[in-house]
Each structure stands twice: as structure tokens, then as C-alpha cells.
Amino acid sequence: MAKTTSVLGRSEARSGLMLISPTALYAVLLLAAPLGTVVLYSLLTGGRGVITWDFTLANYIEVWTGPVYRAIMLRSLLVALSVTVVTVAIAYPIAYFVSFHVQPSKKSLWLFLITIPFWTSYLIRVFLWKVILGYNGVINSGLLGIGIIDEPLTWINYNVGALVVTLAHAYAPFAILPIFVALEKIDRSLLEAGQDLGESRLRTFWRVTLPLSMGGVIAATLIVFIPTIGDYVTPDLIGGGKLPMIANLMEVQMLKINNKPLGSAIAVSAMVIVAILSVAFVMVNRRFLGPAK
């Protein structure tokens, strides 16, 4: 009997392995192999198209000590954090309203409306914000038309604020949906029990709703923060090329200067920063909000 069970277990394990092997091989070829190649390149010596197989940490030293590289990394980090805070701050009230104040029969319609921005290309949405915030754009034209200003405003475009607004709009739906799912999973009887015990709506939200929905908040934070810090198109278009971020710096090193080892070191450094901050987000959630769940 035990032998038969063992044989069946091995057979099921073999079947499961055969089932996932194509996907695993695909993931290895398209994710692990390129990542390993980037790490390898970052340890090589070279520049201007010439690469020698002499392993060194000089590329990382240059990235972490060079004032230009540090300034661009810091800007990328600040922009990504600002976008994340703004996006989650906008997304949570919307998700809360849809979850708690919209009739169940109409929630699907609201979610449908929230996903409408996905119907258009990300690039088109960025271009639209360039038109809205431009020197002769919608905002300046409207303010000039009603006589509030005498000449177009120059500070609403090509700055960090414009980047944050554009990126927050682009990633808002990604933040709304996981928060909404987390709010939907909350047992409404817990909220009623809190109010029955004399808690105000605000304290019930702070002590019950928010902790129980923090899983969705952390998910939204990671979903927004990770792609934002590596965004390439928005700094180039909305920033007018004057506010490069990490991805723009990598593009310059990889394609224009043709210094693949240094560009790879920048890419690996960015991945390490994102990984550390992502783990920190998750640990904060578990440390301070775990017991409330």
C-alpha cells in the first residue's frame, strides 16, 4: 500500500513538472537569462563599444560615487515615491466609494469606467498631458481666454510636478483595483460591531477598515512604484529631456555612448534599489499592521 502511494506520488509530481516545464523554461529564457547577462556585463571592463573580459567593480563604484548618476537616481526615487503617494491617495477614496457606497448591481459599471484609460495607448495618454500642460496647451489657452493670465504659464510643464501628475494619472487604475478587491473582502459585520461598541466612523475606519485593506494598499504601492521608477517615455516627453531618470540614463549609456558595462551597472543598481524598497514596504506592512489583520 505504501509502495503504491509512493508510486502515485511520484507520478503526480512528474505530471505536475511536465505541466509547468514549458512555462518555467519560457520564464528562464526570457527573464533569468537576460538578467544574468546584464549582471555579467556590469562586471566587465569596457566602454565605447569595446568590452574586455576583465572582471571589475569599477562600474558600480562609478555609478554610486559619480555625482551625476547619484543625482539622477535620487530624482528617479523621489519622483517614483511622489507618484506612489499621490496615486494611492487618489485611488483609496475612489476604491472606498465604489466598495462601500455604490450599489452592488452598479459596481461592475464603475469598474468598467475605471478601466477606460486602458483602452488607449500609454504613449497617447502621455502625449495628451503634454498637450494639456504645454505652453500653448489646454490650461494656458483656457486661462488666457477668460483673462486670468496675460501670458502662458511656463512652470506647469517640463518639471517634476508635471511628471508626477502625468504618471499618477497613468497608473491610477492599477492602484484602484487592488485596493477595491481588498475592501470588498472586509466583513461588513466587523464595521457594524465597531460602531455598536461606541466607535465613531472615523475610528472604525482607522482601526478596522484601513488595517484590513492594507494588503491592497501595499499591492497598489508596489504596482505603481516599480514601473514608475523605471519609466522612460514620460521624462522624455513631459520633462522635455531636461529631467532624465534612470531609464533615460541607461538608454544613453547603452545606445548612444555604447558603454554596456556601465549601463548594465546602472540597471542592476536600480533593480537593487527597487528590491530593497519593495521588501521594506512588505515588512512594514507585516510588522505594524499584521496583528490587526
TrEMBL record:
It holds the Pfam family BPD_transp_1. Gene3D superfamilies: MetI-like. Keywords: Cell membrane, Membrane, Transmembrane, Transmembrane helix, Transport. It is a multi-pass membrane protein. Belongs to the binding-protein-dependent transport system permease family. CysTW subfamily. It is found in: Cell membrane. Its main location: membrane. InterPro entries: MetI-like, MetI-like_sf. Residues 73-283 form the ABC transmembrane type-1 domain. This is ABC transporter permease. The chain crosses the membrane at residues 24-44, 72-97, 109-128, 160-183, 204-226, 262-284.
